[in-house]
Amino acid sequence: MKTATRRVYVKVTSVFDATGYMQPRTITWADGREFEIEAVKDFHPAGINRDSSTTDCYTVIVKGETKFLYFEKTNRNQPSRVGRWYVMCRQ
Questions:
Q1: Cα separations (Å) of 67 from 18, 22, 40, 73, 78?
Q2: Strand 22-28 relative to strand 54-62: parallel, antiparallel, unpaired?
Q3: How far apart are CA 62 and CA 48, in angstroms?
Q4: Contact 85, 71 (CB under 8 A)
Q5: Cα–Cα distance for residue pair 7/91, rounded to 1 Å
Q6: Per-residue pLDDT averaged across 75-91, rounded?
Q7: How many CB atoms within 10 Å of residue 14?
Q8: What distance, in Å, lies between the first and last C-alpha atoms of the chain?
Q9: Per-domain residue ranges for the chain?
């Protein structure tokens, strides 16, 4: 039986390296809990969502565990907004 999941949007602090690659550094939950991202292990395009936004998946290490962090790029109709981060959580 597959467990139902939902998107939870989170605040992510990130930096851009000299090549322009976005490096997420911390994840902050709505309740204020903050977690350091110890390493970024992988990055790959994750496809297109039903709202036509493209999404990237970052495989990150948090507290020694592998987690998936998603960056949902904003469509071109909102030029001042680049995108937002989310994680998938069990319901």
A1: 25, 17, 10, 19, 29
A2: unpaired
A3: 26
A4: yes
A5: 10
A6: 81
A7: 16
A8: 14
A9: 5-90
